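Q: A reviewer asked whether we had any structural model of the full assembly, not just the individual parts. We don't, so I'm hoping you can provide one. Inputs are below.
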Amino acid sequence: MSERKALVVDDEFHIVQVVAIKLRNNGFDVLTADNGSEAYKLACQHNPDVIVTDYQMPQMTGLELIEKLRQNESTAETPVLMLTARGFAIDDQQAETLKIAACLSKPFSPREVLQSIEQVLGKKTAV
Amino acid sequence: MKQLIWKTTGIVAGTVLFAVAAALAGSSGLHPVLVIGLWLSAWVGLVLYGILMRTFIRGLDAVLSGLNLQNAAAECRVPAVLKPMAQSVWAYGAKCRQSAERLQSENQDLAFQIQSLQRQKTSAEAILHSIRDAVLVTDGQDQIVLANEAAEHLLDFQLDPRQPKGIDQAVSEIMLCEKIRKSRSGKIRHVRHELTFTRDGRLRTYDAVFSSLFDESETVAGVVVVLHDITREKEISQMKNEFVSHVSHELKTPLASINAYAEMLVDGEAQDTETIRQFCSIIQGQALRLNRLIEDILNISRIESGLVKVNRDNHSIALVIRDAVEMIKSYAQEKNITIHSQAPILYDQARVDRDMISQVVINLLSNAVKYTPEGGSVSIQSQVNEADGCITVTVQDSGVGIPPDDVDHVFDKFYRVEANKKYAKGTGLGLNLVKQIVETVHGGRVFVTSKIGEGSTFGFELPLAETGRQAVTI
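A: Here is a predicted structure for the entire assembly that you could use as a starting point for your response.
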């Protein structure tokens, strides 16, 4: 079985690092990016199984990144988890339209991030 | 006088009667004794008539005078025969007097009420016109019958009470007219709407309260509209929301790191000593960042609310700069950036809170280092302007520069130049704190000039201390 691949995007270096370590320690191959444009390129190149992105990032926000990913055939269905410090930023309808698998509020728990990813990937596998 | 009239009347009447009797005796051929008897009878009758008339007139006089006197006093003067009539006249007179008194009293009350109403009207008009909210009253036909000056100014019309105009004719705000009509036709007692009008090219928001006026038959006799300008409240509310949103985001970011790394340690995700040390170091660094952020927010808040404690004294700005440069030097060296400092030889004291001005200089220097690429340079200098009585400090960098559209906003709270976010982390509070300290606390002025790719110059100006100015002049 090939290693599961995750892409972690956040302009906060420490956040990217902590999520990446948690995922690596639990068997994921992790790609990281500190902005939306770079993340989009990596997603198109490596086609990750799951993407964890911050909501508020310079140049391209997390939502703009997801919108762009949904327009690309190879990433249109990639599960995305969003980390946000603004709890009210995304409503249910927006989440459904953009197929956002889960939204986690900052401060978040790396344990919860992992559990959410496992859940999302489990569902995907079951389908 | 009365007696003279009576005597004269009696003599004249007696003489006339005697003459008539003599004439009758002569002409009729009657016996003289009979004529004298007749004359005497006539005379006696005349006297009796006189007495009777006199008594009657006196009685009547007493009756009439009794209208104005106490009944007891007048009663003894009225003959017994006239007493029943006198009682009736007096009773009637008393009633008339009471009515007159009541009417007089009512008349006085009415005059007082008219005066009072006039005063109330004048007072109500003065109150109505002094109200800053626009007040408008329409009648049952939606005609404007009353409006204060604020309403006339806001809705741009002139009320002529002799020629009331319909709201549609006088007011161009369609929504307002519709709401007035709806309140009246729908018999709505009170209703509140938020309306927006464009005034002097600016969109303004009003809290509009419509209250229907009902007559005795519960028919709507008119509508009272009060328009309160809530534009500023809306702006403040929006700013407050944005502030809370920014603050929560900025606080949550280091908090998220602290929480996540602490959990990793608890879960044993850091397997070697070096990783444990690294995680602890990150937690410590983020805690310090959180503390700085809270301090900045609190300082800005204290300054804005006027609660900050300011310890003013005369301090040399050159010395403040020297200490600040020392503090920032190691940070600059990490990026291989040189800091040049030039302080004046002149006496450059300003009456300032040293810690606060030191914070200003450090913020400007660290900002300059932050946005200057490795190997660049930063220079700080101060200049005393004796003529204007002020000292100017400028911090110039060879950094990335600021786009023209952003230059005017760099001192705004939480404002970050989008294009420069990739170069450095920040909260958007540092420069706002500089502005608050310089302008709000010390009555100075901040300024900035910038060119993309060439760098920026940030600076501030402070008034020189009075003693300092004297020293320079001497």
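A: Points you may want to mention in the reply: Chain A has five helices and five strands. Chain A touches chain B through 22 residues (CB under 8 Å).
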